[in-house]
Amino acid sequence: MSVLVVAEHDNKNLKSSTLNTISAAEKLSEDIHLLILGNKIEDLAKSSKSIQLVKKVIICDHEKLENQIPELSSPIISNLAENYSHILAPSSTFGKNLLPRVSAQLDVTQISDIIGIESQDTFIRPIYAGNAISYVQTDQKINLMTVRPTSFEKCEEVGGDATLENITFLDSEVKTTFVSREVSKSDRPELGNARVVVSGGRGLENSDNFKLLYDLADKLNAAVGASRAAVDSGYIGNEYQVGQTGKMVAPELYIAVGISGAIQHLAGMKESKVIVAINKDLEAPIFNIADYGLSSDLFQAIPEIIKELDLLNQIES
Amino acid sequence: MKVLVAVKRVVDYKVQIRVKSDNSGVETQNVKMSVNPPDENAIEEAVKLKEQGLANEIVSVSIGDDKSQDVLRTSMAMGIDRSILVKSQNTLEPLAVAKTLKIIIDKEKPDLVLMGKQAIDDDSNQTGQILSALLNWPQGCFISNLKIENNKVFISREIDEGIENLETSLPAVLTCDLRLNTPRFASLPNIMKAKKKPLETIDIDTLGIDTSSKIKTLKVIEPPKRKAGIMVNDVKELVQKLKYEAKVI
Question: What CATH number did the domain enclosing B17 receive?
Fold first, then answer.
């Protein structure tokens, strides 16, 4: 049977979470269809046709779909469902907002936030903020799943030649209107997607001191993250939060600065390949999971690291 | 306006959970249990709406065994007027929870339903969205700000990119982010008062809905442990290790 992947995008480009989700779909079927619901998405549809694993791109292009109101998009997905064995969406706030509605409309139980696929009907998902891993099996007529993007590689965006199908917009009466989106602008890589993440905690003491982290992040071409404690203290916006109540990240290098390592923070970053912890408190739990620990005052250590990195660059150039 | 708040009893967020030795699940016996944290935000918001004069009755509902009375009493100690416990021995999946809530809502006819964005035990993050679809009411998920004026509802949602602002209308289903508010502590006099507030019990079998599990848990295991690494002496050593040993910079 075919598998449908619901694309997360901004009407211009696919979000990388969509590419991770397509990789998950590859473990289930060779016939992967990508559904793009949006406004003025002709160019997006064209570029998506070249994704190697995708056989068919299905688009629904309508001005009402501009802002991804789930009350409007979910019936369109439910309407296509009978053609598929599995429907997948990223477990980002986009997918979490949308797919459970399809579950209601199809009367099947959704499996949230899968991190592994054992077979057509058996999936792996974290529970208790990743402190336990559950293997679940289902024999429902269709499997609805959200996919944790960091658990699957991004698929190739080129080399494919998918067919394109336009479907007509199915209007529903909706009482919700979009007002605005406050998106933090940054030249740094996206947090969920960066190769290196530099995160700060309460040890930074105030928002001005986060500038230190931004300098380090820029040296490493890294995204900036934060612990919930730092966010709650108002040092930095919530969209930077890494952890159970924030974003899940799994970069190649995660540098935790002045972060003690509360369970809820570890849940969001412990899949990182290499973890560095810098904290003056030797008892901080973050050291239990760090590959490299440095017990030091961060206000001395960070400028020194920047200096060392500059030195390395000089040697290389 | 009448507000209904859905509340779940879960293992306290400060408890380091243990996987059962037979891998059938997570140990919940003799473990401290509490109100699911974002559900506390939902309770707090309902109480605030009443204090502001926008709500005239606020009701909490939970689904679970007799012990779930605890979290309902906690909600009443925080200011909820009365509670409903839908008694169920089995753990329900989100779809079944939403169907159960719908029946209670059809009977209670609230104008607004509030609940946490996700339960911290199974981390499904589905119930509010399903309920909104079943009721055909507007959905507002992961909200961090709420303003209600003349039947109009203004919400801010925490999304991955930042914040999204929406306008909608009542009746609606809203799921709460931890940033929505700071839940109050229940004072001792209020805890005593809450013991006398009405708590109605309904047996789930009398509701006539299918609450059977559609998903079978084969096993629950501990996550792979990270090996603790090494402590470096200084910044120079750290940078050298990252460059030549880990090869990540």
Answer: 3.40.50.620
